[in-house]
Design goal:
The complex is a heterodimer of chains A (495) and B (152). Chain A is mainly α and 495 residues long. Chain A is built from 19 helices and two strands. A two-stranded antiparallel sheet of chain A has the order 1-2. With 152 residues, chain B is mainly alpha-helical. Chain B contains five helices and no strands. Chain B starts with 6 loop residues before the first helix and ends in a 14-residue tail after the last helix. Classes of the chains: A mainly alpha (495), B mainly alpha (152).
Amino acid sequence: MLSSLPEAIGILLSLEGLLVLILGTVLGIILGAMPGIGSTVAVAIVLPFTLTMGQAPAIILLLAVYAGSVYGGSIAAILINTPGTPQSAATCLDGYPMAQRGEAGLALGWATVASVIGGLVSAVVLIFLAPQLAAVALEFGPIETFALILLGMTCIVSVSTGSVVKGLMAGMIGIFLSTVGGDPILGEMRFTFGNWQLFAGFNLLAVVIGVFALSEVFIRASNKITTVSELVAFNGIVLPSWQMWKGRLRNLTKSVAIGNVIGVLPGTGAATAAFISYAEGRRSSPNREGFGKGEPDGIVSSEAANNAVTGGALVPTMALGIPGDAITAVMLATLTLHGITPGPKLVEDNPTLIATIFAGFFVINLLLLPLGMLLSRVAAPILRVREAFMMTSIVILCAAGIYFVRGNPFDLLVMGGAGVVGFLLRRQGVPMAPLVIGMVLGPTLELTLRQGLILTDGNFFAFFTGHPIALVLALAALGALSLPIIRALRGGAKT
Amino acid sequence: MQRFANERVIVQLALLLVAVALYASTFGQSFSSSDLAQSPMFFPRIVLTLWIGLSLIALVQAVRTQADVAPIASWTRIAVVLISALIYTNVIGSEGFFLPSVVFALICLPAFGIRKPFIVAAFALLVPGVLVALFNHSLGMPLPTSRFTYMF
């Protein structure tokens, strides 16, 4: 991979590469700063437009929007006490009190530096860990791959928000949706009910945009209209001096480590990391008394951890082809649309692409500092844009984007239907991430199961008796699935 | 009665019935392979069985727990936005992108509380107009046009 680095730098320094890096980060920061849009919707909105680009610029654009939006969430959290993204919810706890006492610029300065450091370290983790993991996974046959996907799915469900039953059900709905259309081995049609539009199955992007972006619009329409929050006085970012960091570096290191570890685990995500890191900071920081009253360590704990998740979450996505959360599932779908199959083979077969992605991700995190400083002034007035304009724009943009992908009006119907279904399911507390991940992983799960059954003459139990890695992975999956049940039983016993 | 006729129960019941109907549809079809594992319906049946089992558990949970979903703040607003969005995504293919987008924005913005006619009209014309200019003239991937003109 290192030998491909000069070529990767060449791609990044080309006009298209630079434009994508800068525009993507700018767009990510602005979309992330808008309360309610969030990283998943931001990535989903941009996604169709990547189809006009080459493989590397497309992925770089999505990564830039992803990293930028996670950072951008802190702007709204600090200036109007409303997190732009769920990942920044913990930042409100100390960011807004600090802004209220006239230190909004400094609060954003702490958030920016912590985000940049968290993101850069996670990029290094991604660069070193992903190829190692991919090298191990190269030894996997269909049976091990089947067990690995099973483990990934159960991890995602067991740690996803809400009930395990609903998470599993969402996963099953997603896997089922992936079976519509041609059978992967024999090519015979399934669940098309004579509709030729379904012969190629449901368009994944239409479903993703429907269940995340469109359903968000419907949910906003069903809630009380929020009034525009008052902005606190803000005159640009003030970076903390070296002296100010004294006694805070340990907290920063710990937060970055928490973010990276949680990021690598499938299904957890940046919001969980930010809250765990905040709780740890509150427990162990020398400045813990000030937490909740505008303590910089609180901002550092949350922002360093949530940005450190970004690189970590890409490790299983790139190395194993298993998305860690909804955002990486969307990225995985984009890779597939660009003819790239993520997984162990990707690192081996496309070293230039991987080197470009890794180097690009590092540069994006570096860009957060200057662009964050420049854009925070621009983003502040955007926070006052009324919900009506954002929601109407999202629907129109999504419609244009989805039509743009294949030029097929049927995809618009799928998006509309997915939006309504997503709205109804989200109101019942059914998480959408397992549905999308199920739809992404479904075809591989089916293929590896059926290939495995051919190898074992139809004996499913031979999957585990003759394949120790598969056995370990299956036991881990069983453990991941029983964890929430044990937790629920313990909770019940206590009460 | 409220215990059985609330949104939670109705949605879970609908999910269960959809799964059962899909499962039933897997029978009575002929496929080229008679081998169980290589049947195109082998994998979907496993998934649908799990879906049915899980939705049954979720249905029982919905009946037993009395927790209700978040109340709808305005039925009129959600009905207007939802129906207009569905009609909008349906008619783009036949009526073009620009005109349905303008009409959708003219309906959606007041539903979300924007009352100033000039702002509504300007936004409704500007956003779809910019997108048509971008897609049709810059990116070279034309959005659908209306039956009245090839321009938009």
